[in-house]
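User: I'm putting together a teaching handout on how sequence relates to shape, and I'd like one worked example. Could you take DUF2200 domain-containing protein from Sphingobacterium bovistauri, show the sequence you're using, and then write out its predicted structure as tokens right after it?

Assistant: Happy to. First the sequence, then the structure tokens directly below it.
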Amino acid sequence: MKDTSHHDEKIAKMIFASVYPHYVKKVETKGRTKEELHEVILWLTGFSEEELQAYIRNKATFEEFFNLARLNENANLITGAICGYRVEEITNPLTQKARYLDKLIDELAKGKKMERILRKK
């Protein structure tokens, strides 16, 4: 297991709204839609569309964003490597949640079917 402590504080203080446009660009460049991106974010966090927009508008940090999230009960099924780390092995809860989101967005951009991304049977 790799140590993520050097990333943990950086991720906690990052503003979600500053990263969000990069998420949109990444998925749209690969032929997916902003609506599909929102579906993935809402699935993971349990937020409504209105709550998501408020966190973007209010410039919530990743720490604030994920502290208020109601993580999907199937989030633990998200496995694999992202940024050189296996998401299931990350010990810092906030960093793991942020990497879960990164992993889902990667899967969306790679063209995986939505039911697989959302860990439906």
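A couple of points you could highlight for students: The chain is about 60% helix and 5% strand. The first helix runs from residue 5 to 13.
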